[in-house]
Amino acid sequence: MVQMSCDVLQVSYGVMLYHISCSDRCTFTFENVNNKTVASQIQQWLRPYLSPGFLSVHLSGVPMEIRDLLRFRHCGRTVYTLDGPAGLWCPVCGLAVRLGLMEAPVRIQIPVGDGHRAACCFLITSRHGVPGFSEEKESELHVGISNSEGVVFSYTESGVQCQQEGWEQSIIVPLIDPSNDSLSFRKLWDKQLETYSHLNTWTADRFQEEREFGSCCYGFALSFINHVMRAEGRRTISSECFTSQYIIPRMEMTSRYLSVYQHVRQHGHYSTAE
């Protein structure tokens, strides 16, 4: 889909929105578009819209806002939409919808959140944004640990990074039991995370070393979690256990959500038999 204003074009492709601004040079510049197929497709779409005032475009990819879905039941099916039964008409059967209390639409929240607003959590993000969590897209994932202020610590080839932005679209795994959450505990968490990140174990020159928990960023995060658990006198958790209990279920749920969401955006609704 292409939308044009006096000096800006907007192109939506899948679940990504690309903003295009114009200049006076007859060239295309694609920024932050890692998929060459997408860039080529968008360029083809743009050609009919270009005029002397649109000789040059600069393309930068930004995540399209992904909204919550609404789920309701009608005509023997479970229906997912973005805005509910529009005008009280079912998008499946076309009949009027009369929903009682038990059939009222339920909001299904997007399983991705702002990691900088999630205190003391394990975070998973993707260089491709939310679409990178889809099973249909191969994407490099990165993990980190947030402190009580939402600063994210992660291990990279440059050593441990402390970031206040860049994790706005993350799968979030809370790490603090609500019964154990307190200001004093959060202060202790921050102190331990800061100290742990400065250990010689996590310097840039040791990035390629074999790690107990596999990939380097994952090894850093899970090692810190076990460090805290040891300090509390609790049993540590293995990579296999943490992955199967906390990572895989959230990844699968996010992938399913994206699959349904993309179908809804393309067709207006998605439905399954009850």
TrEMBL record:
Pfam (any one): DUF4796_C
Residue ranges annotated for the MKRN2 opposite strand protein-like C-terminal domain, each copy included: 105-264
InterPro entries: MKRN2OS-like, MKRN2OS-like_C
Full protein name: MKRN2 opposite strand protein-like
Species the sequence originates in: Seriola lalandi dorsalis
